[in-house]
Specification:
Blueprint (H helix, E strand, L loop, with lengths): L1 E5 L37 H4 L8 H18 L5 H6 L20 H11 E9 L6 E10 L5 E4 L1 H4 L7 E4 L5 E11 L4 E6 L18 E6 L7 E14 L5 E7 L11 E3 L5 E14 L4 E12 L1 H7 L1
Antiparallel strand pairs: 1-12, 2-3, 2-5, 3-4, 4-7, 5-6, 6-7, 8-9, 8-11, 9-10, 10-13, 11-12, 12-13
Length: 306
């Protein structure tokens, strides 16, 4: 039996979370966030050093503080308004050129980090009056702030709004849903502001292609894993029709939904979507044997913007 897990946020435990190598050093994981504790925003130079150690607790606190600031400033868009835009099925977007060839894996990841987003939904817990961020992932598509993520990341009726954070710590509001498709589980959003770093899309990734994933599993921010495209599979949809899923061997977990699957040139060939767990004893969910890691081929993003 296959048990599917969508990977939107870190609010519920995932049956399997296997974290790959950190992009720029070990993360500080020992500190626990204290409910109600206020943390002043760090100076820009101290937010997310690149290269440098990733401090997950600092990023999490910073995200919460910046989200609170955005809401208080009145610059966020209510979730009700964003939800009403999810019925849009197409938009016109001019995409950047393909990624340059012949650059090193380190250079690829430096550029990729600038174009990988934390997509956050704002909610309040029962322990304090502050806003908190449930973190998922996203991909910058244009320098004007058009980005892509999964539909289930944007469709969160219980949350207040959506925000995004860039790789260098810039936190902005999600201004608009430009297009979305619940069947393919893709949403194209527009961020507040401009001057973002886009990642190019590529639809050429045959089985065996070496790939990397840069994502935020369970608030382990900017986690890098690598593998190959292991297969493409036709999957029936719940109501009608079918969809093609890209299976990969690179690791990801809860919070990685919407993250890019990158080829060796740094182009986005897919987007992280879900996992399916295979058990020897499926009735009791015992003896885990395999976890299939499913992604959406980038063609489903292109379908919304062409």
């Amino acid at each position: 039996m296959l048990e599917r897990n969508c990977l939107r946020t870190n609010r519920v435990p995932l049956l399997l979370i296997t974290v790959g190598a950190l992009l720029a050093g070990p993360a500080s994981l020992s500190a626990q966030k204290k409910p109600g504790a206020r943390v002043a925003p760090a100076p820009a130079a101290q937010r997310l050093n690149l290269p440098g150690e990733v401090n997950d607790q600092q990023i999490e606190n910073y995200l919460d503080a910046e989200a609170d600031r955005l809401i208080r400033s009145g610059r966020t868009v209510p979730m009700k308004e964003l939800l009403s835009q999810l019925n849009r099925r197409s938009c016109a977007v001019a995409l950047p050129r393909q990624a340059p060839q012949g650059i090193s894996p380190t250079q690829v990841m430096v550029r990729a980090r600038a174009g990988v987003l934390v997509i956050g939904d704002l909610f309040k817990c029962k322990k304090c009056p502050r806003w908190h961020v449930g973190a998922s992932s996203g991909i910058v598509l244009t320098d004007s702030g058009v980005c892509a993520t999964c539909y289930h990341v944007a469709h969160i009726p219980t949350s207040q709004t959506l925000i995004a954070m860039t790789g260098d710590g810039r936190v902005v509001a999600v201004r608009e849903v430009l297009a979305a498709n619940p069947n393919t589980d893709v949403a194209v959003l527009r961020l507040d502001g401009a001057g973002f770093t886009p990642l190019p899309l590529d639809t050429n990734a045959p089985v065996g292609t070496r790939i990397r994933v840069l994502s935020h599993p369970d608030d382990h921010f900017f986690t890098l894993s690598e593998g190959i495209v292991s297969r493409y599979a036709t999957v029936p949809l719940e109501k009608q029709g079918e969809i093609t899923m890209m299976a990969i061997t690179a690791d990801f977990g809860a919070g990685a939904s919407g993250a890019p699957v990158l080829n060796e040139s740094g182009a986005v060939v897919g987007m992280v979507n879900n996992t399916e767990s295979l058990y020897y004893d499926p009735k009791r969910s015992r003896d885990l044997q395999m976890v299939f890691k499913h992604c959406l081929p980038s063609q489903y993003v292109l379908q919304l913007i062409q």
